[in-house]
Amino acid sequence: MDLIDILKTKKIGDEVRVEGWIRNHRRQKEFGFIDFYDGTSFETLQIVYDKTNANFDEIQKMLVGCAIIVDGKLVESSGNQEYELKASNVLLVGECDETYPIQPKRHTQEFLRSVAHLRPRTRLFQAVFKIRNLAAYAIHEYFQSHNYVYVHTPLFTTSDCEGENQMFKVTTLDLENINKNEDGKVDYKADLFGKPTFITGTGQLHGEAYAMAFKKIYTFGPTFRTENSNTKTHANEFWMIEPEIAFCDLDGLMDIEEEMLKSIVSYVLKNGEEEIKFLNNFVDKNLKEKLEKLVNSNFVRITHHEAVDLLKKADIKWEFTPDYESDIAKEHEKYITEYYNAPVFITNWPKDIKAWYMKENSDGKTVAAVDLEVPGAGELMGGSQREEDYEKLVKRAENLGVDTELIDWFMDLRKYGSCYHSGFGMGFERLIIYLTGVENIRDVIPFPRTPGNCEY
Amino acid sequence: MDLIDILKTKKIGDEVRVEGWIRNHRRQKEFGFIDFYDGTSFETLQIVYDKTNANFDEIQKMLVGCAIIVDGKLVESSGNQEYELKASNVLLVGECDETYPIQPKRHTQEFLRSVAHLRPRTRLFQAVFKIRNLAAYAIHEYFQSHNYVYVHTPLFTTSDCEGENQMFKVTTLDLENINKNEDGKVDYKADLFGKPTFITGTGQLHGEAYAMAFKKIYTFGPTFRTENSNTKTHANEFWMIEPEIAFCDLDGLMDIEEEMLKSIVSYVLKNGEEEIKFLNNFVDKNLKEKLEKLVNSNFVRITHHEAVDLLKKADIKWEFTPDYESDIAKEHEKYITEYYNAPVFITNWPKDIKAWYMKENSDGKTVAAVDLEVPGAGELMGGSQREEDYEKLVKRAENLGVDTELIDWFMDLRKYGSCYHSGFGMGFERLIIYLTGVENIRDVIPFPRTPGNCEY
Questions:
Q1: Interface pTM, i.e. ipTM
Q2: What is the pLDDT of residues A98-133, one digit of tens each?
Q3: CB-based contact B180:B186 (threshold 8 Å)
Q4: Residue B421: which of B217, B201, B140 has the closest Cα?
Q5: Residues A310, A317: Cα–Cα separation, whole Å
Q6: Where are the alpha helices (DSSP H) in B237-372?
Q7: What pTM was computed for the model?
Q8: Interface of A with B in 117-146 (CB under 8 A)
Q9: How far apart, in whole angstroms, are the C-alpha atoms of residue A237 and residue B156?
């Protein structure tokens, strides 16, 4: 029986069997205590044994990390838990010797990254990856209960309209012996898809095709970027959520983003109570308060122009001068969220710094884009209303040097029953960083891939 | 308001607004009927308008595929639905002309594959992709309610122990100008990960690391195989579910597989009633009965040896002679499931035809592997108990030519608190083929990738 079900349903006097691992072991001459976990519950169970156990001597030799099966009866606890397990039988299933790197002491996160296959056994990573699991399910639950269809958009693409330098190339050719054509170019005939093939960095275009059929869709899958940047927030393989909604304008999109985020945070607070308590104690003393506050806050909505006004008025010497034509720097994001003391939607960005598919506003200068800035997380989501007019989209693409012939099917969506529609993207790891208080993206991905690092 | 919510909560006399598309349009001189859908509901809504509509002439010109917004009142229906919408206003949002490829007639699936961006608007693909969505959520719901942790295992890997010919290579190198070392080999220093990198075809190894921490885990994500095979059941990009369970033997694994499959099918029958009804009428007259039967059946469990006995006894001239040392052919699978008239688990396979990580049985000849054969679907899941003993695993890997030094971290799992454990893989598309009755994998993937085909 899973420990979490025992803790939920069993009471003092019940006989149970548990299967799991030793997290800690305190030995006395006549008895001993095993701190037991099986990973289904963040709470552990104390196991007590003594000389009445036939294999007392053998039990005493069991080290931290051993896999065991224990039969026994739940009895009143001497500690602060409801009960402990008085063992009638402790069976060793898998040995673990002193070389085991995970010992009951504080390990640095850097060290734990070097044993990425063992670190999920620590309390910190049990908390982080359980919350990652809860957040993933909360996302599905939110969208499913709001009539969205989950769409698996493809990762492989042969249209490089994102710019091939930002995408990984995939091939079945032998890189050591690439066949060339007469003109000296790679001969792709022998490659599985017969063409240069890439891994796309977004499912948005395909998502739009499905939003034009199902009205409300979302994607949730791995995403790849070739960025050669070694920061705390960049990884080359990460997960992303990209909802796309037909008959939805920018205001409607902000409503959805706000409702969705509150729904995820509420779910995690409710279902990850023990994990959040632990992270609050050991990682970020503000975590629980921050999350509870978000659920009860009203998100602010300001334009990019108003945001720059605010930054210019502030009595601060900026490293990057706030500018009506430019992006907003990290220091600005921080100031704005602290000023409002709430999550802030910034809308209507200068069109030249935003993507080609965003809808131009009637001022001719800005597009209907929106970034959500969250206190303690920075930019958590980015979205926009999409240009639904065929001619305008072609013109904007031309101006920004995007070759729409490569994606004629996407342009078709503006020909056949087009409608105003909007969508956003949320980096899943950025959300997990926010939900756990853990600072480095390498610590919220089971086996992170960053430049030069693709181990395990 | 989404149509599905209107159908659930609104009644005759209520005023509503709907936003969606015209599926069909029947025009009379004095009035007209629009068959309206918005994709949230498989049921459509009949919209009635007449000369009292100010823009009557304009409405009459709206063609199939147009995006519209309609205000009106729900009134008693003349047809077989509960009500229809008497329009007070029909607003054209997005035009659609006669060149629109999706017309209200029967299109072949081959033709619809050539308009993969538009085919989700047809009834067939509305049904297929809604069921795909339901099945995906049913999988999450099953595992979440049984204490499993959803783990995002990495797709990129630098350890090619699967055999690099079966994996796609990924690179940031310029294939037209690959730098070589002095010895004439590719210089990977400039590649993002500094090493030959591949897309793995399985998350199992990483999943095992997490099962040794959380007891019960599952993966659910895209998977890639380089197979150059153009059949109805092969795609190069597909989705897969790979659960892994600690303290679970082969019998326990079969219990889980059976319970999970019944749970998914029940969820789809309950939440996709209209879609299943449609597919039953137009794709497979046996579909509903087949699915309902599965939920109520008891899965049979036989050994590979017993299966071969059965095949040998059968009065059939086999194309492939049944053999105690060999795999079971498609014709055999079919016979076995028809013989038992139920799903059949076949266990204990000859060790030489199964993977290196599977646990050897005490007979020294077979491994604790299990395939699930389902009537009308063939092999739906494949799993095994894993070899948890370090020495035995090393020996088996050596015999099968697997270099375990490349995956020393995986071998560590057998050193530190190892335990008996099992897992299986289920191809998601194979499940969707089973659930929908649609025969070709290209018709259950939004944008399929097969050899030579990576369009859209």
A1: 0.97
A2: 999 999 999 999 999 999 999 999 999 999 999 999
A3: yes
A4: B217
A5: 13
A6: 250-271, 273-282, 287-296, 304-313, 330-340
A7: 0.97
A8: 117-118, 120-121, 125-126, 129-130, 132-133, 136-137, 140, 144
A9: 8
